[in-house]
Amino acid sequence: DEVPHSLAVEVDEFVERSATLTYISAVLYVERDTQKAIVLGSGGSMIKRIGQNARPEIEELVGTKVYLELWVKVWERWRKRQNLLRQLGYAVERGR
Questions:
Q1: How does DSSP classify residue 24?
Q2: Are the C-beta atoms of residues 51 and 7 closer than 8 Å to each other?
Q3: Going from the N-terminus, what domains does the chain have, and what CATH number goes with each?
Q4: Which site from 5, 35, 79, 87 is most exposed, i.e. has the minimal number of CB atoms within 10 Å?
């Protein structure tokens, strides 16, 4: 199974709740409702698997257990909108 290519991730919260636990809330943005359905998967199976696969790598990076909360939202044409690209941390050339 694959996720859509037009997917961006924005971390909303990153909180060290204790010496052994970090809380992370992130939004996965897609451009269409059909893509959202793909990312969620049947009964939430795909988004669950995405979280399960990401969590060990994040835990390795931060050095604690991670409580990872993922949300999927539709942001139509986010790849074509400079202000949204900047908000998501992409470098955008002026005049484009």
A1: E
A2: no
A3: 8-82 (3.30.300.20)
A4: 5
Angle at 28 between CA 88 and CA 26, to 5 degrees: 80
Predicted TM-score of the model (pTM): 0.86
Count the alpha carbons within 13 Å of 94 in the hemisphere toward its beta carbon: 0
CA 75 to chain centroid, in Å, comes to: 13
| Residue 9 · residue 26 · CB < 8 Å | yes
Nearest to 78 by CA among 28, 26, 12: 28
- The pLDDT tens digits of the residues spanning 48-74 come to 999 999 999 999 999 999 999 999 999
pLDDT of 84: 87
Positive or negative torsion for Cα 80, 82, 86, 91: positive
